[in-house]
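Hey,

Quick one before I head out. I ran the complex with flavin-adenine dinucleotide overnight. Inputs first:
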Amino acid sequence: MQSMRGLRPTIRAGALALWTHNLKNIDVLDYERPYYFGKALRFSAGIQLSEAYQAAHDQGLVVMGGTRPTVGLAGGYTQGTGHGLSVSKLRFSANQALEWEVVTVDGDILVATPEENIDLFWALSGGGGGTYGIVLSLTIKAYPDQRTAAANLTWTNEDISQETYYAMIQRYIAALPKLLDAGGTSIWLNSNDFFQMSPAVAMAYYSADFPTYLVNPVFRDASASLVVGTSDQAQNLASKELMTETLVPILSELIPGVGYAYLNEGDPWEPNWQQVFYGDSYWRLLEIKEKFDPDRVLYGRTSVGSEAWTEAPDGRLCQS
Ligand SMILES: Cc1cc2nc3c(=O)[nH]c(=O)nc-3n(C[C@H](O)[C@H](O)[C@H](O)COP(=O)(O)OP(=O)(O)OC[C@H]3O[C@@H](n4cnc5c(N)ncnc54)[C@H](O)[C@@H]3O)c2cc1C
């Protein structure tokens, strides 16, 4: 593994981390398999969203991805499900997966598709990054490029009552189902004095029949994913307890059961993370983890199987 071009191992707090940033291959494919017939792009693990979008655009194509240019397409983003501005039309990024090329902890190179290593394919397509193996590349569906309409909208509470300000946000949220039903998507943020929708988008219609499988099906039926935070990271850390113990539980009460949160944007200190991030799929994912990484070599605080370890105050891992 260490001799592979582009992979740079580093030691931190007694651990080994792999740097995949320099794996930058992109292949354009005419993909012909029983489960998909059409254009596809294969991205090495170091490809970031801006590079993926540009490569697709250069071929007159478009691929599903998230909103920020630096996020890795084949890394935690797609392995953790992946939403973005085309989600109402194209579904999630994990639904675009055709092939994962993976190095297992034993050093074997496997290809996981809907027909081969099916369990690994399913787990990688939404079951969380850094858990089942090291992804070398991801092949996803690509679609003909098309015109997309986008709109921004901003208002503040200046010169209006706070009541009116909140009433406007309420009206906006009440109108969202119409936008979603029409295949649109919107990203918005609001504070106590500032609302910004940036943007709402609408795409032309694709007639393709998109798969709707998801590791956690609750997310498939959700109309919104809410993120609570502050813009000042230092303040965010100081507010950690407030988030975990007060704010997130209040939001969770809006959802039946223990609640559900998107694992890629959830609270890393969420106490019920197995159920909240993975839902009823957790036990099946744990079996797959056991099969491909029985010694739990790959670790993340809220990754499947990580309850086998406890973090010591100095950052080292001890067996639970
Ligand atoms: C600025 C910003 C914008 C975002 N926007 C969106 C968005 O629009 N939509 C959305 O769904 N999410 C979004 N996210 C959340 C994002 O999906 C997660 O942060 C995700 O974990 C990022 O994956 P990464 O590989 O880039 O990050 P990393 O921190 O490098 O990795 C995250 C996890 O994946 C693992 N991993 C990374 N590469 C590999 C690999 N090659 N093989 C195996 N495991 C790997 C890591 O070990 C780690 O556990 C955003 C995050 C940020 C910071």
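Residues 75 and 129 are 6 Å apart (CA to CA).

Talk tomorrow,
K.
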